[in-house]
Task: inverse folding
C-alpha cells in the first residue's frame, strides 16, 4: 500500500492523501478543472496502482469548512 500511496502523492492534482482505517485504506482529495479531467485522471492514475482492488470517487459539491475555518458561502 505504501508504494500505491507514493505513486498517488506524485500526482499534481492530488491535494490531500492519507492512510485510514475502516472501510477504505486510503483517502485523498484531488482538484480537476472538468469532469473530463477527472475521468482522465481516474483512468490513468488508478490503472497503474499496485494492489488496487477497487476505487470510489465522489464529487465535492460545496465546502462549509476548510482548514478549521468556515468557508465563504
Result:
Amino acid at each position: 500500500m505504501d508504494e500505491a500511496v507514493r505513486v498517488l502523492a506524485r500526482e499534481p492534482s492530488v491535494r490531500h492523501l492519507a492512510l485510514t482505517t475502516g472501510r477504505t485504506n486510503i483517502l485523498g482529495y484531488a482538484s480537476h478543472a472538468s469532469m473530463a479531467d477527472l475521468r482522465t485522471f481516474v483512468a490513468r492514475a488508478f490503472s497503474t496502482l499496485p494492489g488496487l482492488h477497487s476505487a470510489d470517487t465522489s464529487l465535492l459539491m460545496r465546502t462549509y469548512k476548510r482548514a478549521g475555518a468556515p468557508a465563504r458561502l
User: Anything to note?
Assistant: The beta strands are 14-19, 26-30, 65-66, 69-70. DSSP finds two helices and four strands in the chain. Residues 24 and 62 are 23 Å apart (CA to CA). The mean pLDDT is 89.
